[in-house]
Write a structure and sequence with these properties.
By secondary structure, the chain is an alpha/beta fold. It is built from 22 helices and 18 strands. The strands form four sheets. Strands 10-11-13-14-15-16-17-18 form an eight-stranded mixed β-barrel, surrounded by six helices. A five-stranded mixed beta sheet has the order 4-5-3-8-9, with helices on both faces. A two-stranded antiparallel sheet has the order 1-2. Bound molecules: ligand C2E and calcium ion (CA) (2 copies). The site of one calcium ion (CA) has 4 residues, from loops.
Length: 580
C-alpha cells in the first residue's frame, strides 16, 4: 500500500470507528439514491400530468388529470427536504442543484406560453429552496453539537488524544475485521518524580507535549506502518500499529515513538530527557480479545520495567503472564501482611480409632475485598520473594496462641503441626522465635510438631540437620512432609531425627488403582516404622483408601474424609467431641 493510501486508509478506519461511537449516524447512500429516484419520478409525473387533458373518476367525482401535478410536486419537494435532512451535505447540495435546475424550465414555460398559472410553481420551488436551506443549517448546528459530544466521549481532556474508550473501540473494530495489528502499552518512566518535583501543572504540560509529539508522528508519513495513539490514563499510552510486513516494521515504528519521547523537553526552564517502557502484543498470535491483548501488552511493559535493561521494547511472552500474576500476588500478600489478613485454619489428624491426634495449621489469606487466596498461589510467591518466614511466623504464632487456650480448656493432649519452610528454618533467630512463641502461647514443646518437606531437606541437609537437632533438644517433634515426592535415599532419612512421615496425597490418590501402588505405600509405612517413625497419610478422601491404609499398618490419617481445614470455632468443636 502506498503511503498516501495508507494514511487515507488510517483516516477511514479511525473515522469509521469514531462514527460507530457517534450518537448520530449518517444514512447509508442507498437512502439518498432512493430519494433521488423518487424525486425524479415525482417531477416527471408533474410535467406529464400538467400536459394531459381529461379527467379521472375518484370517489364518484370527476377530477382533471392536470390537478394531480400539484400533488406530485408536493411529493417531490418532500423528497428534497428528506434528502437534506438525512443525507448531510451531499443531500443538501444535490437537492439545491435539482431545484435550481428546475427553475429555468418553469420560467421559460411561463414566459413562452404566457402561462400565469405556472407562477405558483416558481414560488413553490423557491420556498422549497428556503426550506431545505433552513433544514440544512439547523441540521448542521445539531451535528456540530453531536460531534462535540462525541469528541468529549472519545477524546482525552488533557491531551486531546483519543482516550481509552476510543482505543478499545478501535481494537474491537480491527478484531471484527480480523485485521492483524500490534498493541503497544507505553508507560513513561519515572513520571511521578516529575509530578513530585515540578508540580502537577508542569506534569500535565509534559504529558501534553508528549501527546503532541506522538500525534505528529501518527499524522505524518514518518513511519512505514499505520498507527494510532491513545492516552489510557495517567502516564500510560497505547499505540496500535497496523499494516506491517514484519516484526522489524513494528520495532522500527515503536523506536520512532521512543526517539521522539527521548528528545529534549523543556518545561518551566528545565530540560528533561524522558524514557518510556514499551511492551507489545500481537493480534491474533498473543490474544484474540481486547482484554487479553491489553493484559499481555501490559505484562510485557511490566517486564521491561522489571528487567531494567537497555532495551525498552519487549514483545509479550507467555512466562510474563506468570510474572505479572506473581507481582499481583506479591502486592496482595504484602497488603495482607500489613493489614493482618493472614490467618490459619486447622485440619484435624486422627488415629484409626478416630481419636484426635492433633491439628495441622494451614496458612490462609484474604485479599482487600475479603476473598480468600489459595495457599497454592501465595505460598510459592512468598517463598520466591522472601516473605515465607513472615507468613510461617504469623501462622505459627496465631495458631499456637489459639491452641494453647484450646488444650487448657479441654485438658487434652494433642499436637499442633506447623509448616516451616527451609528458608525460615535456616534463618538466624529461628530458634529464638520458636522459643518465644512457645512461651507466649504456653504450649509444651512436646505438643508442637514442625513439618519440613522432604525435597527441601535433600537440598540443604547438613544445616537442616543441625537446626532440627536443636528443635529436638527443645522437645519439639519433627514431621517429614510430602514424603515420597523428593526421592530421598534411605541414608538421608536415617540421618533425620524425625518422628513422623507424612505420605504425600499423590500416593494415597493412586494407591487403590494398582497392586504395585498399594505395595509402594505399604513399603513406605514399613520403612517409616523400621526407622522408628510414625506414619500419617494425608489427603485421604475415600473409605476404600482408609481401609487400605489401615491394612498396611499406617498410624494416622489426615484428609477430607474425617475433617477439612477448619476455622477456629469449628476446630474447637472437633476438639471437644473427639478428644476422648
Ligand atoms: P501441605 O502441607 O501438604 O498441606 C496439605 C494440603 O492438602 C492442604 O492444602 C490441605 O488443605 C490439603 N488437603 C488435606 N486433606 C485433603 C484432602 O482430603 N483432599 C484434598 N484435595 N486436599 C486435602 P492447602 O491448605 O491448600 O495448603 C497447600 C500447601 O501450602 C501446604 O501443603 C503447604 O505446603 C503450604 N502451606 C500451607 N500453610 C503453610 C504455612 O503456614 N507455611 C508454609 N511454609 N507452607 C504452608
Ligand atoms: Ca504440611
Ligand atoms: Ca503435605
Amino acid at each position: 500500500m502506498k503511503k498516501s493510501d495508507r494514511k487515507r486508509y488510517r483516516k477511514k478506519i479511525i473515522e469509521s470507528t469514531l462514527d460507530s461511537i457517534s450518537v448520530r449516524q449518517k444514512s447509508p447512500i442507498y437512502v439518498f439514491i432512493l430519494l433521488l429516484v423518487l424525486y425524479l419520478t415525482g417531477t416527471f409525473l408533474v410535467s406529464l400530468s400538467a400536459g394531459l387533458q381529461g379527467s379521472v373518476q375518484l370517489f364518484g367525482h370527476l377530477i382533471p388529470i392536470n390537478a394531480f401535478a400539484g400533488v406530485f410536486s408536493a411529493l417531490a419537494n418532500i423528497c428534497v427536504i428528506l434528502m437534506t435532512l438525512w443525507c448531510g451535505r451531499l443531500g443538501y447540495v444535490s437537492a439545491l442543484t435539482l431545484l435550481v435546475a428546475q427553475l429555468p424550465g418553469i420560467l421559460i414555460g411561463v414566459i413562452r406560453g404566457n402561462n400565469i398559472r405556472s407562477l405558483p410553481g416558481i414560488f413553490s420551488n423557491l420556498l422549497a429552496m428556503i426550506a431545505i436551506t433552513v433544514v440544512y443549517l439547523n441540521n448542521k448546528k445539531v451535528e456540530q453539537a453531536y460531534i462535540s459530544l462525541r469528541d468529549r466521549a472519545v477524546k482525552d481532556d488533557l491531551t486531546g488524544l483519543p482516550n481509552r474508550f476510543a482505543c478499545s473501540t478501535l481494537l474491537k473494530n480491527l478484531i471484527s475485521r480480523d485485521k492483524e495489528f500490534a498493541l503497544v502499552w507505553i508507560d513513561i518512566n519515572n513520571f511521578n518524580s516529575i509530578n513530585d518535583s515540578m508540580g502537577y501543572e508542569n506534569g500535565n504540560l509534559v504529558l501534553r507535549e508528549i501527546a503532541s509529539r506522538w500525534e505528529a508522528i501518527t499524522n505524518s508519513d514518518i513511519t512505514e506502518t499505520t498507527d494510532f495513539i491513545a492516552r489510557i490514563g495517567g502516564d500510560e499510552f497505547a499505540l496500535v500499529i497496523c499494516d506491517y510486513s514484519s516484526e522489524e516494521d513494528i520495532l522500527k515504528t515503536i523506536s520512532r515513538y521512543e526517539e521522539m519521547l527521548g528528545e529534549r523537553l523543556t518545561v518551566d526552564s528545565c530540560d528533561f530527557y524522558l524514557t518510556g517502557s514499551f511492551g507489545y502484543a500481537k493480534y491474533p498470535e498473543d490474544g484474540k480479545t481486547n482484554d487479553k491483548l491489553g493484559s499481555c501488552a501490559n505484562a510485557a511493559m511490566q517486564e521491561v520495567k522489571r528487567i531494567n535493561s537497555s532495551s525498552r521494547i519487549l514483545r509479550f511472552a507467555p512466562d510474563m503472564a506468570n510474572d505479572a500474576k506473581n507481582l499481583e500476588t506479591e502486592r496482595l500478600l504484602r497488603a495482607a501482611i500489613e493489614n493482618d489478613n493472614i490467618f490459619f485454619h486447622l485440619q484435624p489428624q486422627f488415629d484409626f480409632s478416630h481419636k484426635l491426634r492433633g491439628f495441622e495449621a494451614l496458612a490462609r489469606m484474604k485479599d482487600p475485598d475479603g476473598n480468600m487466596v489459595s495457599p497454592g498461589i501465595f505460598i510459592p510467591v512468598a517463598e520466591k520473594v522472601g516473605l515465607i518466614d513472615l507468613v510461617d511466623a504469623i501462622v505459627f504464632r496465631k495458631s499456637a496462641l489459639f491452641f494453647g487456650k484450646l488444650i487448657k480448656e479441654y485438658n487434652i493432649d494433642i499436637t499442633l503441626s506447623v509448616n516451616v519452610s527451609v528458608r525460615h528454618l535456616m534463618k538466624n533467630g529461628f530458634l529464638d522465635e520458636i522459643k518465644d512463641i512457645i512461651k507466649a502461647s504456653d504450649v509444651a514443646p512436646e505438643q508442637i510438631e514442625v513439618e519440613i518437606t522432604e525435597s527441601i531437606m535433600i537440598d540443604s541437609v547438613d544445616k537442616a540437620v543441625q537446626v532440627i537437632d536443636e528443635l529436638k533438644k527443645l522437645g519439639i517433634k519433627i514431621a517429614i512432609d510430602d514424603f515420597g515426592t523428593g526421592y530421598s535415599s534411605l541414608s538421608y532419612l536415617n540421618r533425620f531425627p524425625a518422628n513422623l512421615l507424612k505420605i504425600d496425597k499423590s500416593f494415597v490418590d493412586k494407591m487403590n488403582l494398582s497392586d504395585s501402588s498399594k505395595q509402594y505405600v505399604a513399603a513406605i509405612v514399613s520403612i517409616g516404622h523400621i526407622m522408628g517413625f510414625d506414619v500419617i497419610a494425608e489427603g485421604v478422601e475415600e473409605q476404600e483408601q482408609l481401609d487400605t491404609l489401615k491394612t498396611v499398618g499406617c498410624d494416622f490419617v489426615q484428609g477430607y474424609i474425617w475433617g477439612r481445614p477448619l476455622p477456629e470455632e469449628e476446630a474447637r468443636k472437633v476438639a471437644a467431641e473427639k478428644a476422648v
